[in-house]
Amino acid sequence: MARRLTCPYCYETFAAREIRFRCNSRLSRTRKQCQRRRDAVLDERFGRRPSNDVGPDFAADGRRSTAVCPDCDGETTYRICPVCHCELPVQFGMVDNRLIAMVGAKASGKTIYMTVLLHEMRNQVGEAYGASMMGLDDTTMRRYSSEYEDRLYRDRQMFPGTQTASTNANRVEPLVFRFGLRRRGLFGERPQHTVLSFFDTAGEDFSTRESVELNTRYLTGADGIILLLDPLQMPGARERALPGTALPGTEGLDAPVNVLGRVTNMLLAARGGKAAAKIETPLAVVFSKLDAFWHLLDNGSPLRAHAPARGRFEVGDSLSVHEEVRQLLKEWDGVPIDQALENTYARYRYFGVSSLGRSPTPDARVAPTGIQPYRVADPLLWLLSEFGSVPKAGRG
User: Domain for residue 86, yes or no?
Assistant: First the structure.
């Protein structure tokens, strides 16, 4: 059976031969030219946009990199998803295509975490690993700069709550990047590229099973999942937080263990009644806002040290953090989370991060000390090491 591909924009699956092409609407060698027009499929999936006038689409062998438009005889290299009609990345299906689902409860800090994570991957991690992280389309480049990075790093403002996908059940607008890394082989260095797709969900999209099934179909197609949980929403941790920490309200919030349960049910349901083996999708369980608990940690705690910057993922260091977080869960009344993971997932790892390094100010701005992220890249680097996309040292 041919390998199924997953679109990094709508998360639907299809065979390579089903990929469609879009005419580039340029003057062809036969002096013909297709007119640009609105694509009804794009409008339905992503809403009407002023720049949605594109060339007509047509069917051809999607396994090839080029095709000839049947209307104007012009050759095009624009390959599009057969479901949502988004233009697919160059070399789609020829390089690793990894979909990263980022999920979590309301007010867990997902948008801030995603923004800082991508910033760190493009800067500090890029320098340490000799890696690059580039936006794969104009929308990703523009949105990440204007809606995320500039707001947090330049304007130093927090984000409003993420809009729930239920306002448009078909609308999925992920940020899609190409992660590039030089790998050494028998014949010297060679570039290795991985397409990464990130989708920031609203916490409300995980409040009921119905909303999970309606709004987050990308979960079942994800190669790896980052589950962000806020310890300040756990009674046992909340009372131990550093005095003065901004605590989230309790009204309308869902317990972290319930969010984990609904994500798990979604993954189990997608298996269609197969044998009750553990879920194989690697799950990075990330506890945010760790700066609220540093005062309780011993000086020798791995959660007080930064990750080694050696251009490889250090398995031993990661496992030390994993065990330290597991011990904290016992103090935070989080044993049900640990037991659920142990009984259901074949590959999971705990992480403790701080996106900002300090609580924001009462007027929802970055603290005067600036953004000082702590271990935010660890979860993604672990997933990439599991995929074989970054080198790792050690076993476990």
Answer: no
